[in-house]
Structures are given as structure tokens and as C-alpha cells.
Amino acid sequence: xxxxxxxxxxxxxxxxxxxxxxxxxxxxxxxxxxxxxxxxxxxxxxxxxxxxxxxxxxxxxxxxxxxxxxxxxxxxxxxxxxxxxxxxxxxxxxxxxxxxxxxxxxxxxxxxxxxxxxxxxxxxxxxxxxxxxxxxxxxxxxxxxxxxxxxxxxxxxxxxxxxxxxxxxxxxxxxxxxxxxxxxxxxxxxxxxxxxxxxxxxxxxxxxxxxxxxxxxxxxxxxxxxxxxxxxxxxxxxxxxxxxxxxxxxxxxxxxxxxxxxxxxxxxxxxxxxxxxxxxxxxxxxxxxxxxxxxxxxxxxxxxxxxxxxxxxxxxxxxxxxxxxxxxxxxxxxxxxxxxxxxxxxxxxxxxxxxxxxxxxxxxxxxxxxxxxxxxxxxxxxxxxxxxxxxxxxxxxxxxxxxxxxxxxxxxxxxxxxxxxxxxxxxxxxxxxxxxxxxxxxxxxxxxxxxxxxxxxxxxxxxxxxxxxxxxxxxxxxxxxxxxxxxxxxxxxxxxxxxxxxxxxxxxxxxxxxxxxxxxxxxxxxxxxxxxxxxxxxxxxxxxxxxxxxxxxxxxxxxxxxxxxxxxxxxxxxxxxxxxxxxxxxxxxxxxxxxxxxxxxxxxxxxxxxxxxxxxxxxxxxxxxxxxxxxxxxxxxxxxxxxxxxxxxxxxxxxxxxxxxxxxxxxxxxxxxxxxxxxxxxxxxxxxxxxxxxxxxxxxxxxxxxxxxxxxxxxxxxxxxxxxxxxxxxxxxxxxxxxxxxxxxxxxxxxxxxxxxxxxxxxxxxxxxxxxxxxxxxxxxxxxxxxxxxx
Length: 791
Prior knowledge:
The two termini are 53 Å apart. The protein is flat and about 115 Å long. With 791 residues, it is an alpha+beta fold. It contains 20 helices and 28 strands. Helices cover 38% and strands 25% of the residues. The strands form six sheets. A six-stranded antiparallel beta sheet has the order 3-2-1-6-5-4. A five-stranded antiparallel beta sheet has the order 8-7-11-10-9. A five-stranded antiparallel beta sheet has the order 13-12-16-15-14. The longest helix is centred in the last third of the chain and has 47 residues, at 553-599.
């Protein structure tokens, strides 16, 4: 895959031209995908776009028909800078797009989420995006669906392009064969020259099956030269008995019937590779000797079938998403008959199986209060443009449900239909009604709430606000009465959030919510979730909005930390798998060399191979140990117990005594334990083991007086550990990187690069620190400080 920084815009535009030229006339085929995208993401608009040099070109639109806009103002221009989804939850709050003319003017875009369209060479050509006129965000399922649909768009591009290419090639090939077959059979020399230029396998056989002529493509299929096929039959190259039987049977059929025989999906296994071919065999009579010949032409369908398989897998993934969706999803005819329901839809209507619902009229499940509205919706989804409505439904068991409904038009099994997404909101409606009936009781409860709760009039003036507002302003509650958020001195971000939620709640006449960042606040309420509930008078008119501002700062920080932890884990797994596979590949290669030498009775290098295998096994064992230590360090809690540094140093040196250079190094220890020191002995041993083993492994063989000095001084507050050696040293340019995962500063020893990374991670757990001073040819000094963890 090509990263965006690794190719220039000219290369991307060259790749784009192929899609612009070939797909302009077929852009309607993407309409279903944009409809699905808008339906899954529950947005008003969805588009398939390509980014030309200066324009954003719309190949397909749902919700609004557009042809093109200036690329400078395109959200997609930002999306193609990365391979990931690009989401703008509120364009008015986004530094990049808040001055965009399509945000501050028609069509007043507020929300955007786009997935890049990436071709097989890694070029990001455009986007599949969803757009809405109100701020929002997508859940993980919706984002995954959008990525799958983007892949489906590229699959359709590739399949369309491949099908056209195959059609052109087959048409050209058949035309060549029709025009020249009769005259070229007796002029094999010129025929060979011509058909060798054709990229598809072409051959002529005797009626016995022996090759008379084969072009380069046919010979290449068998891994031979063309002349090596002459006089031989397929049995000499195809060793799968079942596949050869099919070839022989089709040859015999062409000879006996003297009619063209077609193998639409001929499978041939050659070595480890399986080919899927479309093969035509035509019987021909030679005008020279009157003998019957078999002319064959094959087209390699392997790549096409792979693309089709990928397409099918994408559709299967979409179907699985429908199956596991918690929302009820139905497909109904334009006459209102149920054609499909997912498991959630079956359960919602009180049925045991889909069979109970198929063919039934939607109207039989509609409450009398909603019949008129539903009558108007059936068959008119395209005009409703994804508009959500509240209705009442009656299940098979007679239960009355409050539901939210959104529908889109699409084609199902070749016929016009509607996809309807239904959500049970009975509990939400009941809760809202209960809230209206207990306003005074609610005020008593909210006075002590950690959330900011306020009742605000239509002109944005406070009627009531609870004590939590003091967290931000510290002012008394009566200060806010009758004031607007701006007059009350609230932060700019909070004022914008409150005004937005009031406008949205009043215009929708429904409960609404909005997430925003309070950039001027560093702690509580930096990230907030605002919920607005409309309050009605007896005439059904909105008189005020009940706003709740929830502090989600800690939740947001936890989310960011979780994302970073996931990234660190992905990087560790990738690197660790590489370090584990490298010695395994080395062992595999050496065992093959041993097997080859044994077959050739050559035992001269066996001991060297075995020695190398042993080194690889030791390297693998070291890596596994380091991975285990890393896992334990992250997983296990600190064991605060009295520490004996004499015992730890003894165990470390004893464990390292088997290393190659241990016997020639003078290890000098000086340990002063003036008071009880509490910490985790096992983790301290891990730290010393890694540092001292490095001193041994990277000792200077040219020095006769190699040494390692270990000095430990513990006090009531901390412990100071000094480890000094006169080894080969570390180059200055690598000092800053030695604690990075899998980093190696030298190739002198085959370490895995995890040791000092584990040291750093372990010391963080122990509330410790580490410093290093090193000089090439002189040696290395490590200074470690540990906090006394006595409770």
C-alpha cells in the first residue's frame, strides 16, 4: 500500500483518469451504495466522489444531486490525506472547515464522515462520505459499515474495469480468430508470430490431443517454452487426474460432435498455483490434409473471480451487520407488504420466526393514531429523504410500542422496495412523560446533582439552574435568573453549546443532545455532553428547554488513554511477532541445509549448522522470556516487601554465570543497606538482570581487565544503584533511542532489543528513574533511583 507521502499528486491524478473515463456513464450503479450509507449512518446525504486536479466530482449522490465543486472547499481533500475515516462532528467548531462556504452558506453542512476510496496501488482517489446538517457522530458499527461500503465502491470500480477489459479482449480475440483461422492454419510460422503477441493462451491440437501449435502464453501457463509443448499432450503437464479428465473429455467432445465446446470455469493446478480459465475449443478441418484439429483459446479468470469473491465477502459482511443490528430492519414492497425482517425486527413485532411476518401488510401492525401518517409514508421514502418520524405500533401479542421510523427506497430482488429501520423508544417516551409530570420533584433531586441542570426560555434566558454551575463560575444561584448565558459570564464554548442545543431542541420538538469541548477550562467540564428536553404548555407549544450539561472530561481522557494503549499494543504485537519469526525462519533454513547435506552425504558443515540453530533457539528463548517479563510487568501489581539487595545481586550474577564472557569479567559489588527498603524484589531483579547481562554481552574483548562495578546505597527515602562497566560503549547518536521497543544500538550481539525497554517500563511501575552515560571504547554507566515504597 502506498502512503500519501510516498507519491506525488501527478501520479494520483494519472490513476484517477482511468476511473473518470470509464465510469461516467455507469455512475448510477453507485446510487444503491449511497442510499445504504445514508441509511446505516442515518444521515440526510451520502456521496461517492472523486478528486480531480481542481474539482470534486460527484459520481453518485443521495439526498442532493451535485455535479462538482471547487476542490479547495472539499471535505474530501482532507479525507484522502489518510487511509483512515475522517470525521468532522461539527464543522462550525472545526478549525479547518468553520469558514468553508458550504458550512456557513448553503447547504449549511455541519457533520461529515468520509472513508477514502483506495485503489489496488494505494492511490486515494476520492471518498464515500455521509453528510448531515446537524452536528453528530457515528458509532463504531456505522463507521465499520462505511469502510466496508467504501471498499465495495472500489470493488465495483475494479470489477467494472476488469469486465470491460475482458470484454474488449475477448471481442478482439474472437475477431482475430474469425478473420484469420482459415488462412493461418497452413502457415504455422506466421501464425506463431502473430498469436505470440496475444496475452491469452492459444493452442492447436491434433484430434489425439497432441499439441501442434502453442503460443507463448499457453507455454507460460505450463512453465515451459512453446517448442517444448509440440508433440506432447496435456497429460504430460497436468498431473491432477480429475482436471486432466475434464480436459480430455472436452477434447473428445469437440472431435466427436464437431461443435464448439466451452469450459466456462476450467480449474488447472500447476505446482502450488491454481488457475481458473474460460476456455473455448473449436473443431477445424485442415484444408491441406483434411485432418481434424482442435483450436483452443483460454482467458485467465483468476483475478476476476478473486475480485468477485471480495465483492461477495463485502456483501456478506453487510448482511451480518444487518443480522446483528440492535435496531429492527425491514424490507417492504411499495404496497406495504413485509418482504424481510432481521432478528431484532422479528422480536420487536412479537413473532417467533420470519415466516410469521412475510407477506403481511405493514398496516396491520400500526396503531390507529398513526395510520394516516404511515399511509402517507409507504412508497414515498425517496421524497421523505430519510426523515425520522415517531409512530405507535401494535405487536402480534397486542403490546403497544412507541417507535422511531426512517425509510429509504432501493431495489430488492429486482423490484422497487423500501428499507425501513425501526427503533423501540417506548421507554424513552415513558421517561419523558414521567419527567413532565414531576417537575417540582425533579428540581429537588437536581439541586444536588453533579451535572449542570437548567431550565431556559425560548429566548435563551435562565429560569432555573442548579448548584453545579458554581463549579465553573463560583457565583450564587440567584445571579443567573433572567440572564442569557453570555450575560451570566459563561465561557464562549459553553454559551455556543447551550444556544445550539436550544435551537435544535425547539426546531425538532424532540429530545436532543450534543457533545462539545470547553477549551477554556482545564479540568471539570472541559468536555461536556448537553441534553435538551422540550417543555410544552397545554396547547402543545414549547415554552422552555430543560438542559443538562454532563461533565464527561474523565470519560474523554480515559477514551484517549485507551486509544493510545491500543496503539502501543498493536505496535508491540507487530514487532514481537517479527522478533519471534526471525529465529524460526533461520532454524527452518538451516534444517533444510542439513537435510540437503545429509542427502548428499556431506557432513562437513553439520556442526556449524547445529551451532547456528542453537544460537537461534537461544535468541528465541531470550525474546520469549522478555515478552513474558513485559507481560508480567504490565499485568501484575507491585509487591511491596523488604528488599535484600545482597540476595538480588547474588541471584542475578548466578543466573548470568552461563553467559560466554562471564568468566573473564571481574564483577565488583559494594552494597550499603542502612535501613529497611520496601519495593518489588522480582522487578528489581529484572532491571539488574537486563543491565548486567548487557554489560557482559557487550564487554570489550580487546581489554584484559574487563570489569563491572555494582554499587547500591539505600536510605529511608530512596535507593541509588550505580552500574559501571568498561565494555564497548554506546554511540552518542543512539543514547536517546536505547529504551525504545526492539531497538538495537549495535549488531555485535543478537539481542532482541527488548531489555532496556522492559527496564524503563519496570522502573515506571517502581516509581524509579534511569540515566545513562556512555563513551565508545571506554564503557557505560547506568544510574538508577528507586523510591522506598513502604506504606
